[in-house]
Amino acid sequence: MTRTNIALLVLIGCVAALPLFGDAYALRLGTMACMYAIFALSWNIVGGFAGYPSFATAAFFGLGAYTTGILMNKGVPLPLSLLGSLVLCLLLAAALGVVLLRLRGHYFAIASLSLVEVFRELVNNATDLTGGGMGLNIPLVSGSSVLSDATFFFYAMWGLLLITALVVIAVSMSKLGFGLNCIRQNETASNMVGLNSTLYKAVAFGLSACFVGAAGGLYAAWVHYIDPSDVFDILYSVKPIVMALMGGLGSPLGVVCGAFVYLGLEEVVWRNYIQIHSGVLGVLIILLLLFLPHGLVSLHAGKIWRGLSGRKAKHV
Amino acid sequence: MLAIQVLINALVLGCLYACIAIGFSLVWGVLNVINLIHGSFIVLGAYLAWGAYNSLGLSPWYALLIAAPAFFVFGYLLQRLLLNRVITAPVLVTLTLTFGLDLILNNAMIYYFKADYRKLILNPPTGSISIFDVVVPVDRLIATASALALTFLLYLLLRRSKVGRAIVAVRLDRDAAVLMGVDVKSIYAIAFGLGAALAGCAGVLMALIFPISPLTSSAYLGKAFVVCVLGGLGSVSGALAGGILLALVEGVGSVYLGPAHAVTLSFVLLIIFLVVRPQGLLGRKGFE
């Protein structure tokens, strides 16, 4: 295990101590932080390791949310519903991955973007099952006090983050991670030397979807009400990319740091500029891409100056 | 009769879809950038027509004359000042950059115009014509004719003018174009400006038919995606073919499956086309 991976686990361990000093607001923020970190880590499997620009995060987030929501309405307990979301997203994403990941570059980006649209419209129109545009109410889990509820969901999301991080670390150290790296650098060449790139990409897409799906399920149980335009929001697809760009593409520690920093910025912007928060987010994205294309990880002394003096960026 | 009505509707709507997509296709083909701000440009064009009509009393035809140069300059500057800096970066970077620009423009529109739906209502109304049982609203017909005219203008520009030939050359082979003395950076900016101008004009035409709201920008963008993929990138005829095909599929789909499923159907078609025939109906392979 490399030093950065240990640092990642230590960072996640530190987050677990939050309920010791936090009120309900801090817990809410902590839960969001864990959720964003799950997004960023998951996206990193396909976007960072394999180098495919995926915009499908929102599709599987929404799918997971609705799967858990529907199962819980049918009386299935929360853990089983979450497992259902996870397995469904894993299998569906792997199957879709076989087809979609044959596309490269812009074409893959557009296909994954339209996946979100397709899922949203399907959920919108399956009114009998999902409630359509009216949204779906999800029964309360514990029914006890606000604070204990918040603590429960914080630890649930944190546990999911821990599992995600362990899986991502395992992937990065395994043959799978090595294969995905090869695919990113030169897919044709890796095919030539006998790497089953279709299988690798399908597994990667499945893994990048399943934890997002489970996080969606937890989110649904946490907020008790979901509707299609909320959980299939295209912003859920873009945020992990911004986090990964912020933290540094490909590095699990980097993207988790990126997620936390992003959440902090988002919270500050929301608080102070509620009317123009998405515009401020846009400005942030542009500044980030123009001046810090390799993320916070690349910030060593000296590099900052080159970053500011408008150098010719060589991207990964 | 129903079949003919559906067909006529599809033709009328298809030309408008082509007009939406053509600027998007130009930018994608020439700059290799997926321009996510395209939808917001269209909505801004629609607001321009609405504002010109309601506060200045200018008819939408004059709004077209204002929109084209204004959007061209806007797009040209945007490309020169921002996009040219990252134009050689991978898909992810350019795509995310245009997404950021779209967030800003869309937020600005929501801030100034609010998210209410508005409608440009021509006074006196233009009515509709009916031949046998087939009914076509006149405003829709005029918008379609204008869309076709715009499309034809772009075709002429690309075919006949020196700048147009340079744009096509950059699209076919960027490096060879540089060797022939084409200033690629300024061609990029001109192509982006043209894309923006076409989006603005398309927006003016949309204002005649559809309600206007900043929230509709993603729907327009989605149409542009689908049309480009169906018809194939970078050719004017491809955009027309894609637009009409999309309108046909949506029309037939809403008659037989219900209008709620039309959007789903179009995106499913998009994914099928991407997988089976990524070069589109009329696109040629190897020009990506």
From TrEMBL, chain B:
Belongs to the binding-protein-dependent transport system permease family. LivHM subfamily. Keywords: Amino-acid transport, Cell membrane, Membrane, Transmembrane, Transmembrane helix, Transport. InterPro entries: ABC_transp_permease, BCAA_transport_permease. One of its GO terms (molecular function) is transmembrane transporter activity. This is ABC transporter permease. It holds the Pfam family BPD_transp_2. It is found in: Cell membrane. Coiled coil: none annotated. It is a multi-pass membrane protein. GO terms for biological process: amino acid transport. It comes from Tardiphaga robiniae. One of its GO terms (cellular component) is plasma membrane. The keyword Metal-binding does not apply. Its main location: membrane.
